[in-house]
Design goal:
heterotrimer; A mainly alpha; B mainly alpha; C alpha+beta; A: mainly alpha; 2 domains; C: alpha+beta; six-stranded mixed sheet; 27% helix; transmembrane helix (chain A); MetI-like (chain A); transmembrane (chain A)
């Protein structure tokens, strides 16, 4: 019996480890490749460790690699992304909280129907709003600007953030709101003094989810920006596809890692909340 | 529910608070969608041109060879990506459900790909599957001289590279959802089955997995919608190439609307994408919301 | 006009569901009103309306001389203790208690005085800095009451506050609530489904069923003269024994056995329009004797101070309540007797009590 159990466990662990290696492989490859110079690239292979690790590729990716016409590395695009992500995340989260609060505790006739219609926005293929949205941004004078991107991300993010907060607030006892009403609290007092202090978990989940999605977005970035407002994902793609004489894969890998680092770090530090965001959004209706 | 005797302010205040964002959001979704629909019926090329031409764009799509490739790829990629992600995800979830000590670490490893951009994924896998420098080169260096892996530049096989990268990115997500669901199962049902003498695989197959029907369903919906939207991954990995062998409707739309000056055609392809998504998602949302009443 | 007047309250949620079908109640200042009934009878809905958390479809509510029907909760000068206590999880006990005063912009010094007063009354002074999550069920209940007391309102509302406590705690807290009422003499409306709470706490009880008040009276009135079969069976545990009986000639018989009636009852039975009746006897009215109605003991449930004995008789199964532990066995043949004047008579079809 113990022997069978052991074989069971050995198979189990082998499978788990094989998969773990497969999942880790690209990260490992990116890392080792980014630490090599051209010589080591040629001599080595995907998995070989750098014989003489160097940060050359990293510096180049950050400051001097060519992304099409410009050769300033990813640095300007990194900051574009930051400027875009921070307001977009904060605004969409705040609006989602307010909407969720009203939809769960202050329902009115038609509110559920409106919510249902908004929910489709979570699943809709964004291709269908790209063309009209470029027109609108043009009219608003926001075409190819970071504020244009922020606007798009906020509008596209409201259905998701509303969903998260509404589902969470539905779990807050209605009697809490009733008691506060009896105590004389107004709509806003209940929101700021009672509901928001109890929202810490969902606020964190929503912030992480929005940050990850907006930072990682490429579609809106590539359609609605120009070289001045381009986010880092677009910059990375350009860098990777710039046809130079010799493709410097070490630089490309370093650039990929730079682009991935912010969301990866957040994931490692607060992964639990990231997970909660995934399950909250997907499984709930 | 809260049809209470309230001061006038409290009656319209909640509505006022959500009105702007709801209005804008719904306008963004449905207003622009309708506009795009209209564009698809016009003769727009590089610039929007509101000359109505009926279904001409859709007819053009119907006979467009590249669009055919894109739709066929969507089917192939869709089935393999969804099937593969779900199969691997469920398998990983079941494996991790076996009370592994390192569960936390392993779960973090399986799920981290979801935290990075599809562009990063595409870029990394492009390098790894690079004929000449990537996997092939590695195998040669390890002694497998005859190994060749030219899938990435082979028009027939390139789409499978996209599948591999896609599964790598999303299997962890499926795993996370199923693991949560498995954890939610009542322990006593499993104990009852064990007392009845069922073996562990039997218990999974006959009792646990069937009871996860709803989770299968909703995960399928979410992964399907990811498949249909796949744009970033293809752009980074193959840019739709070689040629347009790995085109998907999303890349087709982008190419025609924004780089080839065929707005009308691009808009039409977007509407087709919408139709496919709606066909899957709308029944799902409808049934979910009804059951919540 | 009493301290609380409820006039012709109707409530429908849609065209087909009528939850309250015309409620009229009036209580005096300082009285403790109980709303009791089975789930779905409308008692909680009625309480929500008194509280202002829900609006009636028609009818008026008066607190004192004021018509509060259209006033929001915060303007009614009431306080409520919820079933789940609804304490604000992110605030300390002290802040929970003072919150209503805080909202009304009562100065800090007064708020603190109120908190101290309440804490002393309920003996929760040592809990003031804790958060609700750190309290036990009984402590939370006291804090919830404290929050209501701090406001010093004209009307207290309780919505099944003891349902979430275990049996022993429930008995203790019941006594505390009663003592509190004796001290503060605030008019109170208390909703419960537990008839023991109703009887022990109430000055007046409104027994509700299907959206109507079945009977409104003092505990004594309700117990001794239940207005209909439902009230008779609902109040009192074990429930009243109900025997289908028929008027035959001048007598009342059940399953062939003649039931003795006193003069008043006999007259009422004779005068009554229908001959199909129900004969009711409370378990404590039955006693074991040397002679009387024969029966076989089928079950004995000793509770300590008394025992409930169920027996099979010619007129059906009866449950008797006798003091102490019963000196008999299941299966034994016994005789049971009762005083006819203690019996209750109801019309079998309408359930209404026969007018005596």
């Amino acid at each position: 019996m113990t022997i069978r159990l052991s074989i069971h466990r050995i198979v189990l662990w082998t499978l788990l480890l094989v998969f773990a290696l497969w999942f880790l492989a690209p990260l490992y490859v990116m890392l080792v490749t980014s630490l090599k110079d051209a010589e080591q690239l040629r001599a080595g292979n995907l998995l070989s460790l750098p014989t003489d690790p160097t940060l050359y590729a990293w510096f180049k990716a950050w400051g001097s690699a060519c992304t099409g016409v410009q050769c300033e590395g990813l640095q300007p695009f990194f900051w574009n992304s930051v400027q875009m992500v921070v307001p977009a995340v904060l605004i969409s989260t705040f609006i989602g909280a307010l909407n969720g609060y009203v939809l769960s505790k202050w329902r009115f006739r038609g509110s559920e129907l409106l919510f249902a219609f908004m929910l489709f926005g979570v699943f809709m293929p964004m291709q269908v709003v790209l063309l009209p949205m470029s027109q609108v941004l043009g009219w608003l004078g926001l075409a190819s600007s970071i504020w244009g991107l922020i606007l798009v991300h906020v509008l596209a993010g409201i259905p998701t953030t509303t969903l998260f907060f509404r589902n969470y607030y539905v779990g807050l006892p209605d009697e809490l709101i009733k008691a506060a009403q009896l105590d004389g609290a107004t709509f806003w007092q209940i929101f700021w003094l009672i509901v928001v202090p109890l929202s810490t978990p969902i606020i964190v989940v929503t912030l992480i989810w929005q940050f990850t999605n907006i930072w990682n977005d490429f579609l809106y970035g590539v359609v609605f920006s120009d070289s001045g407002s381009m986010p880092i994902t677009v910059g990375l793609n350009n860098l990777a596809n710039t046809s130079g004489v010799v493709k410097e894969y070490n630089v490309v890998m370093a650039a990929a890692l730079i682009a991935a680092l912010p969301t990866l770090i957040i994931y490692i530090v607060a992964g639990k909340f990231f997970l909660r965001g995934l399950t909250a959004g997907a499984v709930k209706g | 529910m809260f049809r209470t005797p309230q001061s006038k302010a409290t009656v319209w205040l909640p509505k006022l608070v959500v009105a702007p964002s709801f209005f804008l959001s719904l306008l963004f979704i449905y207003g622009l969608m309708a506009w795009n629909g209209y564009l698809s019926f016009t003769a727009s090329r590089i610039l929007p041109n509101y000359e109505f031409i009926g279904l001409a764009n859709y007819e053009a799509l119907w006979v467009n060879e590249r669009f055919h490739v894109a739709m066929r790829n969507l089917a192939v990629f869709g089935v393999l990506f969804i099937g593969g992600s779900m199969a691997l995800g469920v398998l990983l979830a079941i494996l991790l459900d076996q009370k592994i000590r390192a569960e936390g670490v392993l779960r973090t490893i399986y799920l981290y790909p979801m935290a990075i951009s599809f562009i990063v994924t595409g870029t990394a896998w492009k390098w790894m599957l690079n004929p000449g420098m990537g996997l092939e080169h590695l195998m040669h260096q390890w002694g497998f001289e005859t190994f060749s892996f030219g899938w990435l530049v082979d028009p027939q096989m390139a789409i499978y590279c996209v599948v591999i990268a896609g599964i790598w990115q999303c299997a962890g997500f499926v795993m996370a959802l199923f693991l949560a669901a498995l954890r939610g199962i009542d322990e006593s049902i499993i104990k009852a089955a064990q007392v009845d003498g069922a073996s562990l695989p039997r218990i999974y197959w006959s009792i646990i997995l069937p009871s996860l029907g709803p989770v299968f369903f909703s995960t399928f919906i979410v992964v399907s919608h990811l498949a249909i939207k796949s744009f970033d991954l293809v752009m980074a990995l193959t840019a739709g190439g070689p040629g347009f062998a790995t085109d998907l409707p999303a890349t087709f739309m982008y190419a025609h609307a924004f780089t080839r000056g065929q707005i009308g055609l691009g808009a039409a392809s977007a509407m087709v994408m919408l139709a496919v998504v709606a066909a899957i998602v709308v029944p799902y949302l409808y049934s979910e919301l009804r059951s919540k009443r | 006009m009493g301290a609380l007047s409820i006039k012709q309250i109707h409530k429908s949620f849609n065209a087909t569901t009528q939850v309250l079908k015309g409620i009229d109640l009036e209580i005096e200042k300082g009285e403790f009103l109980i709303l009791v009934g089975p789930s779905g009878c409308g008692k909680s809905t009625l309480l929500s309306m008194i509280a202002g958390l829900d609006a009636p479809t028609s009818g008026r509510i008066f607190i004192g001389e004021r018509d509060v029907t259209d006033l929001p909760s915060k303007d009614r000068d009431i306080a409520m203790v919820f079933q789940s206590y609804a304490l604000y999880p992110n605030m300390t006990v002290a802040r929970n208690i003072a919150f209503g005063l805080e909202i009304r912009k009562i100065p800090k010094a007064e708020r603190e005085a109120a908190v101290q007063r309440v804490a002393q009354m309920l003996q929760i002074g040592h809990l003031l800095d804790r958060k609700p999550g750190q309290l036990s069920g009984g402590q939370r209940q006291r804090v919830a009451m404290g929050r209501a007391l701090a406001r010093d309102p004209v009307l207290f509302l309780f919505d099944e506050p003891l349902s979430n406590l275990d049996a022993k705690l429930r008995v203790e807290m019941r006594a505390e609530i009663k003592q509190l009422h004796l001290r503060t003499r605030t008019t109170t409306v208390y909703v419960t489904h537990d008839q023991v709470e109703a009887m022990t706490l109430g000055d007046r009880i409104a027994v509700m069923k299907d959206g109507l008040v079945q009977q409104f009276g003092t505990p004594a009135q309700i117990y001794r003269q239940p207005a209909n079969r439902f009230v008779a069976e609902f109040i009192g545990s074990p429930a009243m024994n109900m025997v289908d009986a028929t008027r035959v000639g001048d007598n009342l018989t059940a399953h062939g056995v003649a039931l003795d009636l006193d003069a008043q009852q006999a007259q009422a039975v004779r005068r009554h329009a229908h001959s199909e009746l129900v004969f009711g006897l409370r378990p404590e009215n039955l006693s074991f004797a040397e002679s009387g109605l024969p029966g076989t003991l089928t079950m004995i449930e000793p509770t300590g101070p008394e025992s409930y004995a169920t027996l099979d008789t010619a007129i059906g199964a009866l449950t008797a309540r006798v003091p102490g532990l019963l000196n008999a066995q299941v299966g034994e043949r016994v005789f049971v007797r009762w005083d006819p004047s203690e019996a209750h008579l109801f019309d079998r079809h309408s359930g209404q009590r026969l007018a005596l």
